[in-house]
């Protein structure tokens, strides 16, 4: 029997519908509309698509969204000035600075400038620290999307061996920490593999749940999967053959028990987590 598809689009739709009710209740109780400010520097085509989809998502659930488009030549000071303004603006609850930023800008300095209370990406060091300590203010969006697709499809995590491939600061590293945490939706045994792991297949074949977050098209092949494993594909690679993930989907389908597609897997859920975090930010700031 081929693997069950874990449908990110359907789950994203369901969570947006839950959020629509919660946002309406928030507005009713507080007389304030949750609001997200997105900052886009330059014209990276993938970023344009992402920001456009995100604005549509906000509209669907009743969150206000504003987009600040800055030219490719924006200086660090100009961007810092905009962030300072958004930090002070009481009508704005969440701030997202779309990555990557142009080379003249120091991304780290920018992410540290966003108020931790409005940091809906959870990229600020204070929020990263809170996640590590198991006291999150916001969960980082893509790791939260992976956790939710597992939890909401009743995939057991506790006591399972999760192998994460990729140690980025925005996906692999925080996800490994979140799934190893004590508590619901966690309690896994986690192995974090990366580009310097020798004999990667020896590790991935031990995975009950394999998460691919490497950023290389079809990098995970069928021989690297334990029969019956759950495979989560975080990759979004634009190739001549279209959008493909980090796993060789067709070849793995007959081996795995469950698998996420690309597109339509973790991507749409990542955007939903941004909405969740914006509502959380509004609740915390309007208390
Ligand atoms: N500050 C910041 N926060 C981010 O969360 C962030 C970022 N910068 N920079 C870029 C990456 C990438 N990312 C995606 C989210 C959703 C899809 C997504 O919805 N993908 C659809 C396909 C969309 C398409 O067709 O292009 C899918 O997988 O089905 C893709 C990529 C968020 N990122």
TrEMBL record:
Binding site for NADP(+): 166-168, 236
Annotated metabolic or biological route of this protein: One-carbon metabolism; tetrahydrofolate interconversion
Stretches assigned to the Tetrahydrofolate dehydrogenase/cyclohydrolase catalytic domain: 6-121
InterPro entries named in the record: Aminoacid_DH-like_N_sf, NAD(P)-bd_dom_sf, THF_DH/CycHdrlase, THF_DH/CycHdrlase_cat_dom, THF_DH/CycHdrlase_CS, THF_DH/CycHdrlase_NAD-bd_dom
Single GO MF descriptor: methenyltetrahydrofolate cyclohydrolase activity
GO cellular component, one term: cytosol
UniProt keyword NADP, yes or no: yes
Keywords: Amino-acid biosynthesis, Histidine biosynthesis, Hydrolase, Methionine biosynthesis, Multifunctional enzyme, NADP, One-carbon metabolism, Oxidoreductase, Purine biosynthesis
Catalytic activity, as annotated: (6R)-5,10-methylene-5,6,7,8-tetrahydrofolate + NADP(+) = (6R)-5,10-methenyltetrahydrofolate + NADPH; (6R)-5,10-methenyltetrahydrofolate + H2O = (6R)-10-formyltetrahydrofolate + H(+)
Pfam families the record matches: THF_DHG_CYH (PF00763), THF_DHG_CYH_C (PF02882)
Keyword Amino-acid biosynthesis set for record: yes
NCBIfam families: PRK14186.1 (NF010783)
Summary of subunit composition and partner proteins: Homodimer.
Role noted for this protein: Catalyzes the oxidation of 5,10-methylenetetrahydrofolate to 5,10-methenyltetrahydrofolate and then the hydrolysis of 5,10-methenyltetrahydrofolate to 10-formyltetrahydrofolate.
Name of the protein in its database record: Bifunctional protein FolD
Source organism (scientific name): Lacipirellula limnantheis
Source species taxonomy: Bacteria, Pseudomonadati, Planctomycetota, Planctomycetia, Pirellulales
Gene responsible for this protein: folD
């Amino acid at each position: 029997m081929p693997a069950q598809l874990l449908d990110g689009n359907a789950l994203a739709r369901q969570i947006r519908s839950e959020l629509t009710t919660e946002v309406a209740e928030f507005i009713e109780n507080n007389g304030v509309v949750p609001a997200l400010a997105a900052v886009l520097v330059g014209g990276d085509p993938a970023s344009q698509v992402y920001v456009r989809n995100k604005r549509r998502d906000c509209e669907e659930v009743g969150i206000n969204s504003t987009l600040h488009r800055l030219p490719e030549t924006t200086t660090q000071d100009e961007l810092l000035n905009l962030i300072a303004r958004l930090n002070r603006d009481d009508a704005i609850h969440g701030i997202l600075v779309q990555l990557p930023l142009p080379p003249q800008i120091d991304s780290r300095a920018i992410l540290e400038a966003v108020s931790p209370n409005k940091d809906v990406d959870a990229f600020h060091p204070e929020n990263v620290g809170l996640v590590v300590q198991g006291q999150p203010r916001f969960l980082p969006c893509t790791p939260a999307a992976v956790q939710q697709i597992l939890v909401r499809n009743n995939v057991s995590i506790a006591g399972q061996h999760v192998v994460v491939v990729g140690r980025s600061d925005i996906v692999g590293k925080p996800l490994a920490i979140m799934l190893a945490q004590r508590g619901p939706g966690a309690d896994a045994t986690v192995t974090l593999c990366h580009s310097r792991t020798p004999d990667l297949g020896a590790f991935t074949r031990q995975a009950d749940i394999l998460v691919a977050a490497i950023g290389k098209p079809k990098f995970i092949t069928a021989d690297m999967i334990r029969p019956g494993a759950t495979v989560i594909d975080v990759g979004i690679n634009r190739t001549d053959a279209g959008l493909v993930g980090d796993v060789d989907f067709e070849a793995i389908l007959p081996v795995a028990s469950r698998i996420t597609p690309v597109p339509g897997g973790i991507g749409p859920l990542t955007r939903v987590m941004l909405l969740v975090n914006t509502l959380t930010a509004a609740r915390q700031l309007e208390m």
